[in-house]
Write a structure and sequence with these properties.
The complex is a heterodimer of chains A (about 475) and B (about 180).
Chain A (H helix, E strand, L loop, with lengths): L6 E2 L10 H19 L23 E4 L8 H20 L3 E3 L18 H6 L4 E9 L5 E9 L4 E9 L12 H19 L8 E8 L6 E8 L6 E2 L7 E6 L5 E6 L6 E6 L5 E3 L6 E6 L5 E8 L2 E8 L5 E3 L7 E6 L5 E6 L6 E6 L6 E2 L6 E7 L6 E7 L2 E7 L7 E6 L1 E7 L5 E7 L6 E7 L6 E3 L5 E6 L4
Parallel strand pairs in A: 2-3, 2-4
Antiparallel strand pairs in A: 1-6, 4-5, 5-6, 7-8, 7-30, 8-9, 10-11, 11-12, 12-13, 14-15, 15-16, 16-17, 18-19, 19-20, 20-21, 22-23, 23-24, 24-25, 26-27, 27-28, 28-29
Helix pairs in contact in A: 2-4
Chain B lengths: L5 H14 L43 H9 L1 E3 L9 H16 L4 E7 L6 H21 L7 E7 L10 H7 L1 E8 L5
Parallel strand pairs in B: 2-3
Antiparallel strand pairs in B: 1-4, 2-4
Classes of the chains: A mainly beta (about 475), B alpha+beta (about 180).
């Protein structure tokens, strides 16, 4: 499954290019590499074409993305599919408005000449992505694209993204062209917002089926936009709370298989799975940021405590010791601290401790009951579920408990998790009694509430890291 | 109730002896016992046939006996795990039964309604199961015979998403895992 990943590679030489264009190309390649390696971009270079995702009230930037052109009908079809997915990705972020291609005036625009800026300004486009697709003799799919700043009337970027061998043109359902499209969307998002994109990622979730009293819960993995859903071959009819490892290669989850709740580990590539440790009942697993530990709850005769499980030594260490419920632990991205919920002070509240269990401090202070805290990958916030007066809320607060903000509420909203850039939260929501849960996403401003397409009742979403 | 089963005991004795050696799968929620069929009068003609005894309820010592005549679930308040008076009464009957059938083993599973988050409810269910187990042990049931588990909010028995359904789904369920009579 992972053998055919596209890679950003050095651009091939093009003798017709003027030097400034070559410089721009190199810069673009550096930019995408920087994004991939987590280095900061240089936003001042694109001051005119910029969205600040932290601003409270931003109108989506109108962006035009015509179908990518191809040398023949079959390849042009892939080019159209790629452009459609780029449009969808950027629009779903809530930061862009993808202009309907039917409105385009400059219909001849392509990669070989400058666009007619006036035609794009006439339809209020601020940015324009032009691209083409080629399939080499070795069946390698290549997409090449330019990002134009329509307001300034200049070329911003050009990046080539390509797939390795293995794409069959006759099967555009292959994941390769989609991955290229997500890479392009990530590049545009990163260039304009200064944040990493999150489109070339996956989501693991629980698919629910059957009547409530005989419900079946199985794991499904899919692209972040809902494409390529695939069941994960995990036995048992009640499989819960899947979480990606930092490498994205493994998933830890809870299975009630055989009537015994236990934490399991699945290698996505090999399909190998194992039960972890000789625990009693164990649940609520998550990886440490370095992937070496799992943090989880273990039942001690009705008292849940938090344990660390070392995946190399198989050692498990109890790090809390309190008669209250201690569960839903989540590491800070630097691995130094753990946030969890506990009812040790009465109702369920959020607490932060050092990763060895010392220095426990309560951070939540508002009315209601707090649970399922998840530390942002940026480290700056903790997302949580809150219950108050019979309603459920998804909110965020600083790790010191300050600046609580409730982003959304409902009959049932639960189980937030973060996009890998820390700007979007995914969770599950049930709209009323018996309605069945669906996945939704919302941005940090509490805007852009969107259903995540899953094709059925779904819960417990977990967003993969960046590839 | 017990009078109803007096006649059944003889007929079931052999089956009971056999069942005590085996570890039957637990049976799903039993249906109410059927109405007793009318007694068929034996014909007066010689030779006299052996008396056919019709069983009129669950076999004593069986999973159904435990579920119907004892009560295999006790119920809890919202976000609570302390035992109500009713729950204690049911658990007293469970303890008597378990003490009467010392070859049986049970799994006590804690369950929660859907108005809590997943991990928290797993923890809360574990508390409920432990509260029930502790009470059984206090009444003389050996702790070795009582396994506990929590299913959190994952195993609703009432499909209703309202106060009545939630009250039913907040329970601990004592399931006979081995040693029961097959009936």
């Amino acid at each position: 499954m992972m053998n055919n990943l596209p890679r950003v590679r050095a651009l091939r030489s093009n003798k017709s290019e003027v030097p400034t264009r070559i410089w721009t190309r190199l810069f673009a390649v550096l930019a995408i590499l920087s994004a991939a390696w987590g280095l900061a971009l240089a936003p001042q270079a694109f001051a005119q074409l910029r969205i600040d995702v932290t601003e409270g009230n931003v109108d989506p930037m109108p962006i035009a993305i015509p179908d990518f052109k191809g040398p023949d009908g079959a390849v042009s079809k892939i080019g159209a599919d790629i452009a459609r997915v780029v449009r969808a990705d950027l629009a779903r972020s809530g930061l862009f408005k993808a202009i309907d291609p039917k409105a385009f005036l400059d219909v001849r625009a392509g990669v070989d000449s400058e666009p007619v800026f006036a035609d794009w300004r006439a339809i209020s486009a601020q940015a324009l992505v032009l691209g083409k697709v080629e399939v080499a003799a070795n069946n390698r799919l290549t997409a090449e694209f330019y990002l134009w700043d329509i307001v300034a009337g200049k070329l911003v970027n050009l990046v080539e993204s390509s797939a390795q061998e293995g794409l069959s043109i006759g099967t555009p359902s292959s994941e390769n062209w989609r991955k290229i499209a997500h890479n392009i969307a990530d590049t545009v998002y990163a260039r304009i917002t200064g944040d990493k994109g999150y489109f070339d990622t996956r989501i693991v979730l629980v698919s629910e089926s059957g009547p409530r009293t005989q419900i079946r819960k199985r794991l499904t993995i899919m692209d972040q936009d809902g494409a390529n859903p695939s069941p994960l071959p995990v036995p048992g009819d009640l499989v819960l709370t899947p979480r990606f490892s930092p490498s994205g290669q493994q998933i830890t989850y809870l299975s009630l298989s055989g009537g015994k709740p236990r934490v399991y580990l699945l290698n996505i590539e090999t399909g190998r799975q194992e039960i972890l440790g000789n625990f009693k009942m164990s649940y609520a697993p998550r990886f440490s940021p370095d992937g070496r530990l799992l943090v989880m709850s273990v039942d001690h005769d009705g008292n849940s405590e938090i344990h660390l499980f070392n995946l190399q030594t198989r050692e498990n260490t109890r790090i809390t010791n309190d008669p209250g419920i201690d569960t839903s632990p989540s590491f800070s991205p630097d691995g130094k601290r753990i946030v969890f919920n506990s009812d040790r002070s009465g109702s369920s509240q959020l607490f932060v401790m050092e990763a060895d269990g010392s220095a426990i401090e309560r951070i939540s202070s508002g009315d209601g009951r707090y649970s399922t805290p998840v530390w942002s990958p940026r480290g700056d916030l903790v997302a949580f579920t809150k219950q108050l007066n019979g309603r459920f809320y998804i909110g965020v607060m600083s790790p010191d408990g300050k600046d609580e903000r409730l982003l959304t509420e409902g009959y049932l909203v639960e189980g937030p998790d973060w996009a890998p850039n820390g700007r979007v939260i995914i969770f599950f929501r049930e709209d009323g009694p018996g309605a069945g849960p669906k996945l939704w996403s919302i941005d940090l401003r509490g805007r852009n509430l969107q259903i995540v397409p899953t094709g059925g009742n779904s819960s417990d979403p977990n967003w993969s890291p960046l590839p | 109730m017990r009078l109803h089963f007096r006649l059944a005991v003889l007929a079931a004795a052999a089956a009971l002896a056999a069942a005590c050696q085996s570890t039957p799968e637990p049976v799903a929620a039993p249906a109410p016992p059927p109405a007793p069929p009318p007694v068929v009068a034996a014909p007066p003609a010689p030779p006299p046939a052996p008396v056919v005894v019709e069983r009129t309820g669950p076999l004593p010592g069986s999973v159904q006996d435990f579920a119907i005549n004892v009560g295999d679930r006790v119920y809890f308040g919202y976000d609570q795990y302390d035992l109500t008076t009713e729950a204690r009464d049911t658990l007293r009957r469970q303890a008597s039964w378990l003490n009467a059938y010392p070859g049986t083993r049970v799994r006590v599973a804690g369950n929660c309604d859907e108005r809590g988050t997943r991990d928290y409810n797993l923890a809360l269910g574990a508390r409920r199961a432990q509260a029930a187990k502790d009470f059984l042990v206090s009444l003389g049931v050996s702790g070795d015979r009582v396994e506990t588990v929590s299913y959190g909010k994952e195993r609703a028995i009432d499909p209703r998403s309202n106060a009545e359904g939630w009250a039913v789904n907040r329970n601990s369920h004592t399931e006979i895992t081995s040693g029961a009579a097959i009936g």
